[in-house]
UniProtKB/TrEMBL annotation:
Coiled coil: 418-454
One CC-aspect GO term: plasma membrane
Residue intervals passing through the bilayer: 17-36
Name assigned to this protein: Intermembrane transport protein PqiB
Location in or out of the cell: Cell inner membrane
InterPro entries: Mce/MlaD, PqiA-PqiB_transport
Length: 549
């Protein structure tokens, strides 16, 4: 058997790579391109801190800007302390230029508040996170989600102001800002400053209405219904439907004053409790005076007007000014009630700020020397509210009254109105009491009895004279003697019970007696109840007609 030789290798060129390998290479290339494209288009990752994850789901909850999705929540977890929720979100690359320190995030869900109803579309699609881009220029990737949507977006043109309020009704966030009952803005923030012990509000005025705010503008709380019973009467102001529900803030320039200069962003103003307070406190140049009233000041309240011939020139600032000292005085003088009033110069002098220092103090001092006094007057019969009235009914003086605890004193005079009537009634009662009616009645009774006794004696005397005249011996007397007896009889007849003089005297005494008897109940009633001349003396209130039990 012959041996076969081993096969020999044949050398040749290697063939080219098979087309089959192109498919995995192409897949690798596409995958690398996708990774690169994803890396190139991938936006920043941000961290959102919120008090609760209600409605937030990882991998589902989108983040939107102007209803365009720019990212999605990737994870939701508790913080290390467990008091907050940390949500991580991946944004698109297009959102990177929008992330600044003043950017805002909030959860959009169905909401009902003073601004209306919002977020109804999320009933079907679910909650989402709204993103409001910032403009500060300072980059930031960690944010706190707002508890409520912002009232006004940061990019809306307008004017933001800060209002400081003390002892005024609270106004809620979202309440309207009104100018002459027209809405021109909104309340954005409301917080209490514990250090200043006052409320602080941030409001936003939309453009072009921001030009309405000037340096002389005054802001006040505009409640839905304002009912006030003051010395001027009953005042009722009704606002819009929205202010009835949530209140609001109104502003304007007080009438009779210039508009003032334009103001800048974040300017500060005071917020007053009402329009009346805003207008009254507008007059910053005030002259304080103390009036010592020697009568009751019941019905006089802080803010009551101070008037001169019906024109308001000031306001009452304090009733009383200090604690009262009602103990006996060694001097024996009356203790007056110190009432502090402020004369508001701007009310009667628009150019008060241009006057030299002390100008109006000197003018008022001259008026006091010429007899200017203050008195209490009734401004409203229904409420009994009082106000202070100034006139020149006092006596002229060479020197001013001594100051009261560094305050200049304005002399007080007797009151007017109902108090003056009451004083006159009391004076009338004093005069009636001084008449001693009991003694007068007794003297009248004695005079009437004496008159009757005299008439009886006259009647007896007349009978004796008639007998004397009829006596035959008297007839024998000379004619002159008989004539004298006849005249005596006629004179006595004039005082008889049947004579006209006696009848007139008796009637006069009887009328006087009856008048005095009728005056007794009136005097007793006025002594016990002086106001009986003005009001009904019934103890119970009358029942209106048609009243039902």
């Amino acid at each position: 058997m012959t041996e076969q030789s081993p096969p020999s290798a044949r050398l040749g060129r290697l063939r080219q790579l098979s087309l089959v390998w192109l498919i995995p290479l192409l897949a690798i290339g596409v995958g690398l391109w996708m990774v690169y494209d994803t890396w190139r288009n991938q936006g920043p990752e941000i961290t959102l801190t919120m008090p609760s994850a209600e409605g937030i789901e990882a991998g589902k909850t989108p983040i939107k800007v102007r209803d365009v999705a720019i990212g999605r929540v990737t994870s939701v977890s508790l913080s290390d302390k467990g008091d907050t929720v940390i949500a991580t979100a991946q944004l698109d690359k297009s959102a990177a230029p929008l992330l600044f320190s003043d950017s805002q995030f909030w959860v959009v869900r169905p909401r009902v508040d003073s601004g209306g109803v919002s977020g109804l579309s999320t009933l079907l699609s679910g909650a989402y996170i709204q993103f409001q881009p910032g403009k500060s220029g300072q980059k930031q990737h960690s944010f706190n989600i707002l508890s409520a949507p912002p009232v006004t977006a940061p990019d809306v043109p307008g004017l933001r102001l800060t209002l400081d309020a003390r002892d005024v009704p609270t106004v809620g966030v979202g309440s309207p800002v009104l100018f002459q009952h027209y809405e021109v803005g909104r309340v954005e923030k409301a917080q209490f400053d514990t250090e200043a012990r006052q409320m602080r509000y941030q409001i936003f005025i939309h453009r072009p209405y921001d030009r309405l705010v000037t340096s002389n503008s005054r802001f006040w709380v505009s409640s839905g219904v304002n009912l006030a019973l003051t010395a001027a009467g009953l005042q009722l102001n009704v606002g819009s439907v929205q202010t009835l529900l949530s209140g609001g803030i109104a502003f304007d320039v007080p009438p009779g004053h210039s508009l003032g200069d334009a103001v800048g962003n974040q300017s500060r103003f005071m917020l007053y409790a009402s329009e009346e307070n805003a207008r009254n406190l507008y007059y910053e140049q005030q002259l304080p005076y103390v009036v010592l009233f020697n009568e009751s000041v019941r019905g006089l309240t802080v803010g009551a007007p101070v008037e001169y011939r019906g024109i308001r020139v000031g306001s009452v600032a304090a009733v009383p000014l200090t604690s009262l000292d009602i103990g006996p005085k060694k001097t024996g003088g009356n203790v007056g009630i110190p009432v502090l009033i402020n004369l508001e110069v701007g009310r009667f002098d628009p150019d008060a700020s241009k006057r030299p220092a002390g100008y109006w103090q000197a003018r008022v001092a001259d008026s006091i020397k010429n007899g200017m006094v203050a008195r209490l007057k009734t401004g409203n019969l229904l409420s009994g509210a009082l106000f202070v009235d100034l006139d020149f009914s006092g006596k002229k003086a060479r020197a001013l009254p001594k100051p009261f605890r560094t305050y200049p004193v304005l002399p007080a005079s007797d009151s007017g109105g109902l108090s003056q009537i009451e004083n006159k009634v009391i004076a009338l009662l004093d005069k009636l009491n001084a008449l001693k009616l009991e003694d007068t009645l007794n003297n009248a009774d004695e005079a009437l009895a004496s008159t009757r006794d005299a008439a009886e004696r006259t009647r007896v005397l007349m009978g004796e004279i008639d007998k004397l005249v009829a006596n035959p011996q008297t007839q024998a007397l000379p004619g002159d003697a008989r004539k004298t007896l006849e005249q005596l009889r006629q004179s006595a007849a004039a005082f008889s019970a049947d004579s006209a003089a006696y009848q007139e005297l008796t009637q006069t005494l009887s009328t006087l007696n009856q008048l005095l008897q009728n005056a007794r109940p009136l005097v007793r009633t006025l002594d016990a109840q002086p106001n009986a001349l003005l009001f009904d003396r019934n103890d119970t209130d009358p029942t209106p007609k048609g009243a039902r039990p």
